[in-house]
Specification:
Blueprint lengths: L2 E12 L2 E7 L12 E5 L8 E4 L9 E7 L7 H6 L6 E4 L12 E6 L4 H12 L7 E6 L8 H8 L3 E5 L8 E2 L4 H7 L6 E5 L2 H13 L7 E4 L1
Parallel strand pairs: 7-8, 7-11, 8-9, 9-10, 11-12
Antiparallel strand pairs: 1-2, 1-6, 2-5, 3-4, 3-6
């Protein structure tokens, strides 16, 4: 791991998602959508590491991570949610190819929204978010991460889908081939896909069946 950084603050975003503000190392640069490996700088955790995508902007003086905990699965995310300011983390250099390539539609499942938060925030800062669409699926309205912010940036092009329980501003259903056929007005655009492996597999297969070019699909699970 390349850096040692300290957690400056944490706060809940949803019932199981926490926001972390972390020191930014001098000279650290990344593109929105890239990930880093994180590990606790503590005895017994040296070899436990996972990839997370910063949700901060490239010019921010700190790093932000938006991390979902899985309480039924002992591991790093659960350990992080039990820690607070002053925690030391080990962090790698940024990596990954899920970076912005041009106007299109972001399709996210669950915590797969995190790479797109940085991209959409960056686009909004440049006044260009309105050229993009978002289809974001979660189990219930309470599981959506930053829905008000996303609606603010994208307006009617922000489509929120709840697979188990609908609610205000969140349409019930699933992001499958039929849904994508109704929701997309063209296949001639970039598609950015992120979420659980099964979600990414099913969405990319549906896009392919609908005629989207493989060269325009960027995905990571």
């Amino acid at each position: 791991m390349d850096y040692s950084v300290t957690v400056l603050m944490t706060e809940l975003v949803t019932h199981d998602v926490r926001r972390y503000i972390v020191e930014r190392p001098a000279g650290f640069e990344l593109e929105p959508g890239q990930a880093v490996m994180l590990a606790l700088n503590a005895a017994g955790w040296e070899k436990v590491r996972r990839s997370f995508t910063p949700t901060s902007l490239p010019a921010d003086r700190v790093l932000e991570f938006t991390i979902k905990a899985y309480p039924d699965h002992p591991g790093l995310t659960r350990a992080l949610h039990g820690l607070g300011p002053g925690t030391e983390l080990r962090m790698s250099r940024p990596f990954g190819t899920l970076t912005y390539r041009g106007p299109g539609t972001f399709i996210a499942g669950g915590a797969g929204i995190t790479p797109f938060l940085a991209m959409i925030r960056s686009l909004a800062g440049d006044g260009a978010a309105g050229d993009h669409g978002l289809i974001y699926a979660a189990r219930t309205p309470d599981d959506l991460i930053c829905p008000q912010e996303l609606r603010h940036y994208l307006g009617e092009r922000c489509r929120l889908v709840c697979t188990r329980e609908g609610g205000t501003g969140c349409e019930p259903g699933r992001v499958d081939r039929d849904y994508l056929a109704r929701a997309l007005d063209t296949q001639d655009q970039h598609f950015y896909v992120c979420g659980p492996p099964a979600f990414v597999r099913d969405v990319t297969a549906a896009l392919d069946d609908l005629g989207a070019s493989a060269d325009l699909m960027l995905f990571e699970s």
